[in-house]
Fold this sequence. Notes:
By secondary structure, this protein is α+β, with helices and mostly antiparallel strands. It contains 6 helices and 19 strands. The longest helix is centred in the N-terminal third of the chain and has 81 residues, at 2-82.
Amino acid sequence: xxxxxxxxxxxxxxxxxxxxxxxxxxxxxxxxxxxxxxxxxxxxxxxxxxxxxxxxxxxxxxxxxxxxxxxxxxxxxxxxxxxxxxxxxxxxxxxxxxxxxxxxxxxxxxxxxxxxxxxxxxxxxxxxxxxxxxxxxxxxxxxxxxxxxxxxxxxxxxxxxxxxxxxxxxxxxxxxxxxxxxxxxxxxxxxxxxxxxxxxxxxxxxxxxxxxxxxxxxxxxxxxxxxxxxxxxxxxxxxxxxxxxxxxxxxxxxxxxxxxxxxxxxxxxxxxxxxxxxxxxxxxxxxxxxxxxxxxxxxxxxxxxxxxxxxxxxxxxxxxxxxxxxxxxxxxxxxxxxxxxxxxxxxxxxxxxxxxxxxxxxxxxxxxxxxxxxxxxxxxxxxxxxxxxxxxxxxxxxxxxxxxxxxxxxxxxxxxxxxxxxxxxx
Length: 426
């Protein structure tokens, strides 16, 4: 069995190199035509420009057709080499192998096709791989002057099709604080602090290129593991660009817990649950919904749910504030350090904490209604409450960004995070 898989993998490598060589040659010719477009247009006018566009279209079409044909050639070998999994398997080995193959071929070939027929690079990550690619250290930056990073916003807009930022270069940040950011071709993250309602609000805005870059990690790498770590430790271990504390699922039996597409626990009598689907969208359920394991798993399967976060309550749904007057957890009617996750648009998110800066414990913290008001002001489509208090933590590049209650992190059981999808070295 191992020899057959090795032979298939070697065959895959040979074909992939052939695909890449042909595509690179076509791309090179495309670049040459692009370079001389201006000169030829000046010499031959509109007819020359039209001829150039036609030539580039033909080259791009050839590259795409060739890649599709060659990829199709790989399928019989893969199916023959891996065989049929046992009927008792709960998760198909073939599916896992095909997922890894799809990720590899997509990442490699789409990189070569970038620029041909205006096809952009498409990178994505496998959910079964716990460790994401390492971020490029040179992509991090910081400043205390908001106006100095307009160029970063411009590049992020071009690379990731960001229509509107939450961050504004005219923002008044907390005195002595810094704006920190990360930007590559697949992710943009920026953090800043504001003094609001006599308290400190920390914002972390994120835009990703692919839903698979929005990820969940449980301490120990498996559901139910008897381990706890700091948010910054887990963020560093999985190579997170930006990470946030989650719901501390091991501390309480509350809400519906979904991990890797499987319902692990259900208790929705008083809970709102936030689900993340395969498009990276936040989907909510409310108290009394999904009351049985079978019903919950059917909901997960029908909506292609990848994982969930179970704390709550929901604060904004479809752009409308909807926080409840009371809720079982989180001391909603008391002033308490808060944390929340917002969805601003497609693959565009905002993580927010409201707390006290170390050394200034006289500062205010909001009740859930004031917190919901501030999140709704950002223009978010969805907003959901995360575990607050000392649990609430945001880390960029494995380093804490926000002030935490009592001045130190809490050992917790889980995080969610955003990762780069760029293979290391690119």
